[in-house]
Amino acid sequence: MKSRIFRAGVVGYGRIAESAHVPAWSRLPFVDVVAVADTCPERRAAAAAALPDTRQYETCAEMLGAEALDVLDICTPPSDHTTSILAGCKANVSRIVCEKPLAASQAEYRAISSAQATSGSQVYTVNSWFQSDLHRLVSKVLKSGEIGRIKHIELRTLRPDCALGVPSWHPRWRTEPRYAGGGIVLDHGWHQLYLMANWIDADPVGVRAKLDTLLPKHAPVEDFAVLDLQFPAATGRIELSWAAPSRTNDGRIVGSRGTISIEDDRLLIEARGNIYAEPYGERLSDSSYHPEWFVALFGNVLNDTNRLEGSNNLREAGMLMTTLCQAYGRPADMLDRVAAASSTHVYAAVEMPPMAVGWS
After folding, report:
1. Model-level pTM greater than 0.85?
2. pLDDT tens digits for range 164-174
3. 198 and 53 within one domain
4. What's the N-to-C CA distance of the chain in angstroms?
5. Angle, to 10 degrees, between the axis of helix 106-117 and the axis of helix 78-90?
6. What is the CATH number for 75?
Protein backbone atom coordinates (compact mmCIF):
# COMPACT_ATOMS: atom_id res chain seq x y z
CA MET A 1 0.00 0.00 0.00
CA LYS A 2 1.32 3.43 -0.90
CA SER A 3 2.15 5.58 2.13
CA ARG A 4 0.12 8.73 2.64
CA ILE A 5 1.84 11.95 1.57
CA PHE A 6 1.14 14.98 3.76
CA ARG A 7 0.90 18.26 1.85
CA ALA A 8 2.42 21.08 3.90
CA GLY A 9 2.22 24.84 3.50
CA VAL A 10 4.58 27.24 5.30
CA VAL A 11 3.56 30.73 6.45
CA GLY A 12 6.54 33.05 6.87
CA TYR A 13 9.82 32.17 5.18
CA GLY A 14 12.23 33.78 7.64
CA ARG A 15 15.28 32.38 9.40
CA ILE A 16 13.49 29.74 11.50
CA ALA A 17 11.59 28.41 8.48
CA GLU A 18 14.64 28.46 6.23
CA SER A 19 17.08 26.99 8.76
CA ALA A 20 14.95 24.58 10.81
CA HIS A 21 11.34 23.96 9.75
CA VAL A 22 11.76 23.40 6.00
CA PRO A 23 14.96 21.30 6.36
CA ALA A 24 13.13 19.15 8.93
CA TRP A 25 10.08 18.63 6.69
CA SER A 26 12.40 17.70 3.82
CA ARG A 27 13.89 14.89 5.90
CA LEU A 28 10.48 13.29 6.38
CA PRO A 29 9.85 11.16 3.26
CA PHE A 30 6.06 11.28 3.62
CA VAL A 31 5.85 15.10 3.58
CA ASP A 32 5.82 17.45 0.58
CA VAL A 33 6.14 21.18 1.17
CA VAL A 34 3.94 22.41 -1.68
CA ALA A 35 3.43 26.12 -0.88
CA VAL A 36 4.95 29.09 0.96
CA ALA A 37 3.22 32.33 1.97
CA ASP A 38 5.15 35.47 2.88
CA THR A 39 4.23 39.16 2.68
CA CYS A 40 7.81 40.09 1.76
CA PRO A 41 8.59 39.77 -2.00
CA GLU A 42 12.27 39.08 -1.31
CA ARG A 43 11.37 36.18 0.94
CA ARG A 44 8.95 34.72 -1.60
CA ALA A 45 11.77 34.89 -4.15
CA ALA A 46 14.12 33.16 -1.69
CA ALA A 47 11.57 30.41 -1.10
CA ALA A 48 11.04 29.93 -4.84
CA ALA A 49 14.80 29.61 -5.37
CA ALA A 50 15.28 27.16 -2.51
CA LEU A 51 12.07 25.21 -3.14
CA PRO A 52 11.46 25.33 -6.90
CA ASP A 53 8.55 22.87 -6.75
CA THR A 54 6.53 25.07 -4.38
CA ARG A 55 3.95 27.73 -5.19
CA GLN A 56 4.33 31.18 -3.62
CA TYR A 57 1.57 33.32 -2.08
CA GLU A 58 1.50 36.71 -0.40
CA THR A 59 -0.87 35.74 2.42
CA CYS A 60 -1.88 32.68 4.38
CA ALA A 61 -5.52 33.20 3.37
CA GLU A 62 -4.55 33.24 -0.31
CA MET A 63 -2.57 30.04 0.10
CA LEU A 64 -5.38 28.27 1.96
CA GLY A 65 -7.85 29.30 -0.71
CA ALA A 66 -5.74 27.75 -3.46
CA GLU A 67 -4.19 24.70 -1.78
CA ALA A 68 -5.60 21.56 -0.13
CA LEU A 69 -3.20 21.26 2.80
CA ASP A 70 -2.79 18.58 5.45
CA VAL A 71 -0.29 20.65 7.47
CA LEU A 72 -0.07 24.40 8.04
CA ASP A 73 3.31 25.43 9.48
CA ILE A 74 3.29 28.96 10.94
CA CYS A 75 6.72 30.57 11.22
CA THR A 76 5.68 34.24 11.41
CA PRO A 77 6.17 36.62 14.38
CA PRO A 78 3.64 36.31 17.26
CA SER A 79 1.43 39.14 15.99
CA ASP A 80 0.32 36.92 13.09
CA HIS A 81 -0.07 33.60 14.89
CA THR A 82 -3.73 33.83 15.86
CA THR A 83 -4.85 35.14 12.46
CA SER A 84 -3.10 32.30 10.63
CA ILE A 85 -4.24 29.63 13.10
CA LEU A 86 -7.88 30.73 12.86
CA ALA A 87 -7.63 30.70 9.06
CA GLY A 88 -6.21 27.18 9.20
CA CYS A 89 -9.02 26.01 11.49
CA LYS A 90 -11.61 27.58 9.19
CA ALA A 91 -10.07 25.62 6.30
CA ASN A 92 -10.08 22.43 8.45
CA VAL A 93 -6.36 21.85 7.96
CA SER A 94 -5.73 18.64 9.89
CA ARG A 95 -2.55 19.71 11.68
CA ILE A 96 -1.55 23.28 12.42
CA VAL A 97 1.97 23.76 13.74
CA CYS A 98 2.91 27.17 15.17
CA GLU A 99 6.13 28.68 16.45
CA LYS A 100 6.20 29.87 20.05
CA PRO A 101 4.57 31.71 21.67
CA LEU A 102 1.26 30.30 20.46
CA ALA A 103 -0.48 33.64 21.03
CA ALA A 104 0.19 37.05 22.53
CA SER A 105 -2.69 37.16 25.02
CA GLN A 106 -5.10 34.94 26.90
CA ALA A 107 -7.95 36.26 24.75
CA GLU A 108 -6.14 35.07 21.63
CA TYR A 109 -5.47 31.70 23.26
CA ARG A 110 -9.16 31.27 24.03
CA ALA A 111 -10.06 32.15 20.43
CA ILE A 112 -7.62 29.51 19.17
CA SER A 113 -8.90 26.86 21.58
CA SER A 114 -12.51 27.57 20.60
CA ALA A 115 -11.76 27.50 16.86
CA GLN A 116 -9.95 24.19 17.16
CA ALA A 117 -12.82 22.64 19.12
CA THR A 118 -15.30 23.41 16.33
CA SER A 119 -13.05 22.42 13.43
CA GLY A 120 -11.25 19.35 12.15
CA SER A 121 -7.90 20.87 13.08
CA GLN A 122 -5.41 20.13 15.85
CA VAL A 123 -3.07 22.96 16.89
CA TYR A 124 0.49 22.32 18.12
CA THR A 125 2.99 24.83 19.50
CA VAL A 126 6.61 24.14 18.54
CA ASN A 127 8.00 23.24 21.98
CA SER A 128 11.23 22.06 20.42
CA TRP A 129 13.32 21.78 23.60
CA PHE A 130 11.39 18.65 24.51
CA GLN A 131 13.48 17.00 21.75
CA SER A 132 16.82 18.16 23.21
CA ASP A 133 19.49 16.03 24.87
CA LEU A 134 19.02 18.25 27.91
CA HIS A 135 15.40 17.21 28.34
CA ARG A 136 16.08 13.55 27.55
CA LEU A 137 18.94 13.25 30.07
CA VAL A 138 17.27 15.27 32.84
CA SER A 139 14.12 13.17 32.45
CA LYS A 140 16.18 9.97 32.67
CA VAL A 141 17.87 11.06 35.90
CA LEU A 142 14.59 12.21 37.45
CA LYS A 143 12.86 8.97 36.51
CA SER A 144 15.64 6.99 38.19
CA GLY A 145 14.84 8.68 41.50
CA GLU A 146 18.53 9.38 42.17
CA ILE A 147 18.07 12.95 43.37
CA GLY A 148 14.73 12.36 45.07
CA ARG A 149 11.84 14.82 45.00
CA ILE A 150 12.49 18.12 43.21
CA LYS A 151 12.63 21.05 45.62
CA HIS A 152 13.95 23.85 43.38
CA ILE A 153 14.97 24.49 39.74
CA GLU A 154 16.99 27.37 38.30
CA LEU A 155 17.37 27.86 34.54
CA ARG A 156 19.39 30.58 32.79
CA THR A 157 19.47 31.61 29.12
CA LEU A 158 22.04 34.28 28.31
CA ARG A 159 22.55 35.92 24.92
CA PRO A 160 24.50 39.02 23.78
CA ASP A 161 21.56 40.16 21.63
CA CYS A 162 18.15 39.03 20.45
CA ALA A 163 18.13 36.67 17.47
CA LEU A 164 18.06 38.71 14.27
CA GLY A 165 15.58 38.14 11.48
CA VAL A 166 16.24 38.34 7.74
CA PRO A 167 17.66 41.66 6.45
CA SER A 168 14.80 42.18 3.98
CA TRP A 169 12.06 42.34 6.65
CA HIS A 170 12.42 44.03 10.07
CA PRO A 171 15.60 42.22 11.20
CA ARG A 172 15.07 43.41 14.79
CA TRP A 173 11.36 42.56 14.92
CA ARG A 174 11.83 40.89 18.31
CA THR A 175 12.24 44.39 19.79
CA GLU A 176 9.14 45.77 18.05
CA PRO A 177 6.03 45.25 20.24
CA ARG A 178 3.63 45.36 17.28
CA TYR A 179 5.26 42.17 15.95
CA ALA A 180 6.78 40.45 19.01
CA GLY A 181 4.21 41.27 21.69
CA GLY A 182 6.95 41.38 24.32
CA GLY A 183 10.68 40.84 24.75
CA ILE A 184 12.86 38.07 26.11
CA VAL A 185 10.16 36.69 28.41
CA LEU A 186 8.02 35.70 25.44
CA ASP A 187 10.99 34.70 23.30
CA HIS A 188 12.99 32.51 25.69
CA GLY A 189 10.81 32.29 28.79
CA TRP A 190 8.29 30.11 26.95
CA HIS A 191 10.85 27.32 26.44
CA GLN A 192 12.30 27.47 29.95
CA LEU A 193 8.89 27.44 31.61
CA TYR A 194 7.54 24.35 29.85
CA LEU A 195 10.74 22.44 30.65
CA MET A 196 10.55 23.44 34.31
CA ALA A 197 6.85 22.57 34.66
CA ASN A 198 7.40 19.22 32.94
CA TRP A 199 10.28 18.25 35.22
CA ILE A 200 8.39 19.30 38.37
CA ASP A 201 5.27 17.63 36.95
CA ALA A 202 2.99 20.45 38.05
CA ASP A 203 1.73 23.83 36.88
CA PRO A 204 2.95 26.98 38.65
CA VAL A 205 0.53 28.58 41.11
CA GLY A 206 2.26 31.95 41.49
CA VAL A 207 4.89 34.14 39.85
CA ARG A 208 6.92 37.22 40.74
CA ALA A 209 8.76 38.99 37.92
CA LYS A 210 11.47 41.61 37.56
CA LEU A 211 11.81 43.00 34.01
CA ASP A 212 14.35 45.52 32.77
CA THR A 213 15.71 47.03 29.56
CA LEU A 214 19.48 47.18 29.91
CA LEU A 215 20.50 48.06 26.35
CA PRO A 216 18.85 50.94 24.44
CA LYS A 217 18.87 48.95 21.20
CA HIS A 218 16.28 46.59 22.70
CA ALA A 219 13.87 49.31 23.83
CA PRO A 220 10.99 49.39 24.37
CA VAL A 221 10.83 45.65 25.17
CA GLU A 222 12.57 43.98 28.10
CA ASP A 223 15.98 42.39 27.49
CA PHE A 224 16.49 41.12 31.06
CA ALA A 225 14.11 39.18 33.27
CA VAL A 226 14.02 37.17 36.47
CA LEU A 227 10.91 35.08 37.10
CA ASP A 228 10.44 33.50 40.52
CA LEU A 229 7.83 30.76 40.37
CA GLN A 230 5.88 28.91 43.03
CA PHE A 231 4.71 25.36 42.35
CA PRO A 232 2.56 23.27 44.72
CA ALA A 233 5.61 21.54 46.25
CA ALA A 234 8.64 23.25 44.68
CA THR A 235 10.03 26.60 43.59
CA GLY A 236 11.68 27.78 40.39
CA ARG A 237 13.69 30.68 39.01
CA ILE A 238 14.19 31.60 35.34
CA GLU A 239 16.86 34.17 34.44
CA LEU A 240 16.96 35.59 30.91
CA SER A 241 19.21 38.15 29.24
CA TRP A 242 19.87 39.62 25.79
CA ALA A 243 22.62 41.77 27.35
CA ALA A 244 25.12 39.06 28.35
CA PRO A 245 28.77 38.98 27.18
CA SER A 246 28.29 35.60 25.48
CA ARG A 247 25.80 32.81 24.68
CA THR A 248 25.21 30.14 27.30
CA ASN A 249 22.54 27.98 28.90
CA ASP A 250 22.89 26.62 32.42
CA GLY A 251 21.04 25.91 35.63
CA ARG A 252 20.55 23.45 38.45
CA ILE A 253 17.94 21.13 39.84
CA VAL A 254 17.92 20.59 43.60
CA GLY A 255 16.35 17.40 44.87
CA SER A 256 15.79 15.97 48.31
CA ARG A 257 18.71 13.53 47.84
CA GLY A 258 20.96 15.15 45.24
CA THR A 259 21.45 17.78 42.55
CA ILE A 260 21.75 18.10 38.78
CA SER A 261 24.00 20.88 37.50
CA ILE A 262 23.03 21.92 33.97
CA GLU A 263 26.06 23.05 31.98
CA ASP A 264 26.20 24.15 28.36
CA ASP A 265 27.67 20.82 27.21
CA ARG A 266 26.68 18.29 29.90
CA LEU A 267 24.84 17.46 33.09
CA LEU A 268 26.72 16.90 36.34
CA ILE A 269 24.78 14.65 38.70
CA GLU A 270 25.64 14.49 42.40
CA ALA A 271 23.73 11.85 44.36
CA ARG A 272 24.38 9.08 46.86
CA GLY A 273 27.94 10.28 47.38
CA ASN A 274 28.82 10.04 43.70
CA ILE A 275 29.38 12.65 40.97
CA TYR A 276 29.16 11.77 37.29
CA ALA A 277 28.61 13.52 33.96
CA GLU A 278 26.10 13.02 31.16
CA PRO A 279 27.35 14.80 28.01
CA TYR A 280 25.06 16.19 25.29
CA GLY A 281 25.59 15.58 21.61
CA GLU A 282 26.06 19.34 21.10
CA ARG A 283 26.30 22.45 23.22
CA LEU A 284 22.91 23.92 24.11
CA SER A 285 24.02 27.35 22.92
CA ASP A 286 25.61 26.17 19.66
CA SER A 287 22.58 26.96 17.52
CA SER A 288 19.26 28.80 17.56
CA TYR A 289 17.74 26.27 15.17
CA HIS A 290 18.62 22.62 15.96
CA PRO A 291 16.87 21.16 12.86
CA GLU A 292 17.24 17.62 14.18
CA TRP A 293 14.91 18.49 17.06
CA PHE A 294 12.27 19.57 14.54
CA VAL A 295 12.46 16.28 12.61
CA ALA A 296 11.48 14.39 15.76
CA LEU A 297 8.86 16.97 16.75
CA PHE A 298 7.17 17.02 13.33
CA GLY A 299 7.22 13.23 13.18
CA ASN A 300 5.39 13.12 16.50
CA VAL A 301 2.81 15.61 15.23
CA LEU A 302 2.06 13.55 12.13
CA ASN A 303 1.87 10.33 14.16
CA ASP A 304 -0.54 11.85 16.70
CA THR A 305 -3.54 10.04 15.24
CA ASN A 306 -5.58 10.09 18.46
CA ARG A 307 -4.63 13.76 19.07
CA LEU A 308 -3.59 13.07 22.66
CA GLU A 309 -0.26 14.86 22.22
CA GLY A 310 -2.03 17.79 20.58
CA SER A 311 -4.55 18.08 23.41
CA ASN A 312 -1.77 18.05 26.00
CA ASN A 313 0.21 20.59 23.98
CA LEU A 314 -2.74 23.01 23.79
CA ARG A 315 -3.48 22.65 27.51
CA GLU A 316 0.17 23.36 28.22
CA ALA A 317 0.01 26.49 26.04
CA GLY A 318 -2.81 27.76 28.23
CA MET A 319 -0.66 27.36 31.33
CA LEU A 320 2.25 29.11 29.63
CA MET A 321 0.09 32.01 28.44
CA THR A 322 -1.41 32.52 31.91
CA THR A 323 1.96 32.46 33.66
CA LEU A 324 3.75 34.75 31.20
CA CYS A 325 0.87 37.23 31.09
CA GLN A 326 1.03 37.36 34.89
CA ALA A 327 4.80 37.92 34.69
CA TYR A 328 4.13 40.95 32.50
CA GLY A 329 1.56 42.17 35.01
CA ARG A 330 -1.23 42.02 32.44
CA PRO A 331 -3.58 39.08 33.04
CA ALA A 332 -5.76 39.93 30.04
CA ASP A 333 -3.41 41.11 27.30
CA MET A 334 0.29 41.26 26.56
CA LEU A 335 0.58 43.14 23.29
CA ASP A 336 0.11 46.62 24.76
CA ARG A 337 2.39 46.09 27.75
CA VAL A 338 6.16 46.38 27.24
CA ALA A 339 8.98 47.45 29.50
CA ALA A 340 10.00 51.09 29.16
CA ALA A 341 13.60 51.69 28.18
CA SER A 342 16.10 51.59 31.06
CA SER A 343 13.48 51.07 33.75
CA THR A 344 12.75 48.26 36.16
CA HIS A 345 9.34 46.72 36.75
CA VAL A 346 8.76 44.63 39.87
CA TYR A 347 5.41 42.99 40.47
CA ALA A 348 4.11 41.50 43.66
CA ALA A 349 3.58 37.75 43.76
CA VAL A 350 0.19 36.74 42.43
CA GLU A 351 -1.99 33.66 42.60
CA MET A 352 -3.09 32.55 39.14
CA PRO A 353 -6.73 31.54 38.62
CA PRO A 354 -7.42 28.76 36.10
CA MET A 355 -8.28 29.88 32.60
CA ALA A 356 -11.84 29.40 31.46
CA VAL A 357 -10.67 27.44 28.43
CA GLY A 358 -7.92 24.90 27.96
CA TRP A 359 -6.52 24.16 31.37
CA SER A 360 -7.48 23.85 34.99
Report:
1. yes
2. 999 999 999 99
3. no
4. 43
5. 20
6. 3.40.50.720
